[in-house]
Amino acid sequence: MAQTTPHLALPLLAAGQAGKHVTHNEALLVLDALVQLACRDKDLAAPPAAPAEGDRYLVSAQTPTGAWTGLSGQIVVFGDGVWTGLAPQAGWLVHVADEDAFYRFDGTRWGRLFDGLRRLRNLEAIGLGTEAETGTAFAAKLERALWSARTVAEGGSGSLAVVLNKAAPGGAGALLFQTGFSGRAEFGLNGEDALGLKVSADGAAWRGAWRADPATGHLGLGALALPGTPMARAPLHVAREEAGPGLCLDAYGAGPVDNLIQARAGRGSRQAPAPVRAGDGLVGLSGGGFFSGGSADGCVTLRGIAEEDFSAGAQGAGFVVEATDLGGVIPRPVVKMRANGALELVARAGVPAAGTAPGQLVFDSTLGAFRGQTGAGWVRLTNQPRFRASTSYDNYLGAGTWTRVGFNTGTLNDQGLFRASDNAFVAPDAGTYTVSAGLAFKRNGDNAPASLQARFQRNGAALDGTRRGVATPVDGVSTVSLSATVSLAAGDRITVEALFTGTDGYVAAADSDFSGFGLA
């Protein structure tokens, strides 16, 4: 027959044993020590100096000393001036008073009972301060929650990550914020792999706030923020489906304030930016639109341009406005605000044929002139044409016949307006012109004409109201002067013709000329 119990090793009474009360008392003392087991401390390596009767300690030191020598890992109890060691068995629990913590013996070592709880697995539900309901496996009713990283000294890395993992792209991995258990904001991967935020005023109708494209990192705002909408086309892309501004910037201050959108450009990389060069873009606004079957970008653009290679002392820059002609698809520069302070209308060949309206202004490269639209047509505003022509010989004119005067030398021929081949001034464009001519008389021998007359022709026909003359001209003295202001179409030709009556004579080369200029 065994002499002790199998679990607590309590001494058993033997048949016919003398002094049974001693054995019985010993068993009671062991039971008193182990039932509702509570120790004062577990960290001492030697017995305390003045223990009380019945004091118990958990000896966790590897090599305890004094009366505890050889009792490592055991429960020791003080009684009748003696320390008695009780060897634990797997599953024993002890409360350590100075730590207010429970320890459990696993058959090899003592460990804090909470260590076991940190390894709990496959719980179906947890409720903190409330009940975990079906479909909500973890529920907590709190005023504040703290998540703190485990430090390196504690065996961690010092970092903290909270992971929400969904099974497939079409699922949701999100944080839902509610008021009175009605949804107001949802942040996360909502039915796709793009990170987004959507909001609601009533928990039923949801609007997108922003959404980040997982492939590019581009951020879409407004109408691009809900799942299923197109991804952002730029690092920041704003879209809206109703009237109103797409972007609003306010600025306030106690003194003078400013409200800028600031942009910087540089060659090289973000880590090592390099100077911009002449022609590089610094900032820009570009507009386009949709058409049936597609869209067009950059139809109109305001662009800031570097006009020189940048350095600490040279940062010349200006603005360029680009537009697309009616019926065209290629934008072109129309206005430049140059670094030198000049406003430049970019030259174009000719004038617009469509979309004209009073007040429009262009610089026509074919004429080298500014032209303005009056509502009735385009008129030249600058670089008005002018010419002066002479004849290299005395022009003989028979009596009684109108004859073209052979002006054949353009002494001033701005823009090539005088055409010597047909002795004519040719209007470069429609407008108003003033033409003048002076003809000097030279006698042919002793002939004495009754008169010398002159007039202008337009396209070979006499120009009404321009005839002038002198009677009984005097050789080397008499002249005929004529002048006219006339509206001409582009390409109209003005020539001078003269007539002697009575007898023939000459138009003298020395003192005869033909001139003109444009007015508008």
Automatic annotation (TrEMBL):
Q: Name one Pfam family in it.
A: DUF2793
| InterPro entries recorded | DUF2793, Tumour_necrosis_fac-like_dom
Protein name according to UniProt: C1q domain-containing protein
Biological source species? Methylobacterium gossipiicola
